[in-house]
Amino acid sequence: MLISRSVRFIGLITLSLVLVSGTIRTTQAQTLPRVLMIGDSIMQGYFHRSQIELAGQFVLFQPDPGSGDTDRATVYMQDWLDDGPWDVIHFNWGLHDLYTQNVNHPGVNAIPIEDYESNLRSLVPQMVASGADLVWANTTPGVDPLFPVNDVLAYNAVAAQVMSEYDIPINDLHGLLEPVQETYQATPGNIHYNTAGSTLMAGQIATSILSVHDPGVLPGPPPCGGLLCHTGANDPFLEGWLSTIDAGATEAPVIDDMGSGLDAWEVQNSSGSGKAGYFGTASLDAQALADIATGGWSMRANVRVDDLIANGYDEALAPAPGFAVRLDEADHWAILFLSTDSNGNPIAQLKGGAGLANVSDEIPISGSGYHTYEVRSQPMTTLADLYIDDTKVISDFDIGNTVDYGDQLVWGNWATGSDGAGYWNSVQFTTAPGSEFVPGDFDDDDDVDGADFLAWQRDLGDDPSMLSWETNYGFAAGASAGAMTVPEPSGFVLMILTGLGCLAFRKQETNDDSKT
């Protein structure tokens, strides 16, 4: 359909929101309007900052494979459109077309202006037919000699004519930057822009997108059973987490990860530098801290770890996927590090206390898929326990810390130099989680096993308690509903019950003998 709008130039308004992101190759698990951002390396600079400007209102995507000149776009345009539907397409081609660094024909544009116009007349109708609202971003100022200043003006004029024929509004990035180009160049004479310049463009881009498409009523964050949560392939920013995503790190939604049936949020760093983490502190208000003081806290995550790197695997447990809890008022600091062995099986290690001086043994975990990890503090103490797949594997671990660094909840690859990837199906931070009472757990170790029978035999000996132990044998605190199904009595249970029967018979026999 044709967009009935006169050509107009968009002014600048700056918005202050939080970040949301995506790429075409994956599907975001929410209902915000979708924006396809087509451009060149200039767009790479403003894409991330445009996400910040439009977070909570739109989800921004880049084409895969990436764009370049208009010749390349004619090859991939239909594929890009098929990755829709798109609510908005914000697009630009220019610098790659008018580039003059050609070893065979120096000074000649890579795509002659006549071919540039012809390509635009092929590309624009395809986008119009998609039904998306369109915004053309004209080409930013040139730099002689490789990106001739006058050629930029000529190519922009040709593009403006094509856009006018389709009533497509123009985001005048050239007009925005031309008076201040030297101020915002990445380096003198550079065609690219520094962070401030990219931020300037992002504000105007946000305004241009909002001018053509109303995002409507915005969805709130998904339901959360804890103070802060992450669920499935939902963008953590929409759930209340802030982020640090350095160069070399990536994050993206993943649907049906590895055929597991679980959606997840991928946080990966393979650069050996930088970091990628999600931080949550805003909800730690006075009430939350009071609940923590009296009832403790729990940090729980269901995650698949892939710590394989180019040079092998990381048995040294350099900071890789994991999570951390630091609470100054409670004097707590605990970090769970996750890595893998050479077969891809996870390895967990807990660190805590002042300077993270307390270090647990490495805990090997069988199976390379998803596992649940929970660090739970003990109320009114500086001790914590580690559960893996709802089984306690570390007890009474000292996380006492007297150095104030500020409250912090974080998950991902947040430490500089971390490597590997985590696929986070769920994350939950809960205050005052309490302790789960398990009938038959007579030795208070959160499960019902043979040791509890010995405790019953030593301290209780009554029939109702024995029935409680028999009914719940094999149960572990925190197990899922499926895992809570009472198992058939094992050989061990039957042996004990047989022994009890013999004892009862012998007791009765003794009583009978005493009567004769």
UniProtKB/TrEMBL annotation:
The identity of this protein, by name, is Uncharacterized protein
Q: Which organism is it from?
A: Adhaeretor mobilis
Q: Which InterPro entries match?
A: ConA-like_dom_sf, EF_Hand_1_Ca_BS, SGNH_hydro_sf
Task: List the Gene Ontology MF annotations in alphabetical order.
Answer: hydrolase activity, acting on ester bonds
- Top-level taxon in the UniProt lineage: Bacteria
